[in-house]
Amino acid sequence: MDVNQAIDIIKSVLPEKRFLHTLGVVKAAKQLANKYGGDINKVELSAIFHDYAKYRPVEEMRQIIIEQQLPKQLLNFHTELWHAPVGAYLVEREIGITDVEILNGIRYHTTGRPNMTLVEKIIYLADYIEPNRQFPGVDEVRQLAEKNINQAVLQATKNTIQFLLEKNSLVYPDTIDTYNNLINKS
Ligand code: DGI
Ligand code: FE
Ligand code: FE
């Protein structure tokens, strides 16, 4: 798939603000791929489509999770998590991308997972640090991303878990497992 064609497609399915966020993720992801040696073309396509399903109706996503045998436990957690695995499914079905590395970058961009591939780490981190993001702690993660990708992913995960705890939100097991896995590695 040609990158310009991919950009045109995503522009047509996202509101302006989310499209600008996506361009920021593409920029950050390409920088990380240059620094850490990731496959630029895969990283770029994964970044372009990472939020493909973000605006799908919740009921459509629920049906896809059930019918396509995505993890059932997603249904017991916040619907905000659903666009990542549902996005991976829809990007394959509707866009025709079959590359597992690209699809898994999309699938795990919200929660992470243990033993993430380089592409997965890059998309997860780029989504967190892209230039339009301005939440507390993001600059610290940006600085870590210059030096050590695992430490940056760990800090982003810690910040996300802390943010969820403050809100008394449920924390999805993959998010906790990402944290535990990176603590074991550090
Ligand atoms: O889609 P984006 O807004 O670009 O970013 P995202 O896909 O990382 O989604 C972010 C939201 O997902 C953010 O509000 C935090 C939330 N989130 C991440 N991990 C978990 C989570 N929400 C719950 N409930 N549980 C998690 O483990
Ligand atoms: Fe997302
Ligand atoms: Fe995003």
Helix-strand string: HHHHHHHHHH
* Unreliable parts: none
- Can you give the helix content as a percent range? 55-70%
The proportion of strand residues reads under 5%
Q: What's the shape?
A: globular
Q: Largest sheet, if any? A: none
Bound molecules: 2'-deoxyguanosine-5'-diphosphate, fe (iii) ion
What is the subunit organization of this protein?
single chain
How far from one another are the termini? Answer: 37 Å
Tally of helical runs: 10
Q: pLDDT average, as an integer?
A: 98
* Computed structural class: mainly alpha
- Would you count the extended β strands for me? 0
Radius of gyration: 15 Å
Descriptive labels:
186 residues, mainly alpha, 10 helices, 0% strand, globular, binds 2'-deoxyguanosine-5'-diphosphate, binds fe (iii) ion
Plain-language structure description:
By secondary structure, the chain is mainly α. It is 68% helix and 0% strand. The chain has ten helices and no strands. Helix 2 runs antiparallel to helix 3 (40-49) and helix 6 (100-107) packs across helix 7. The longest helix is centred in the N-terminal third of the chain and has 21 residues, at 16-36. The radius of gyration is 15 Å and the shape is globular. The model has no long low-confidence stretch (mean pLDDT 98). One fe (iii) ion binds next to helix 5.
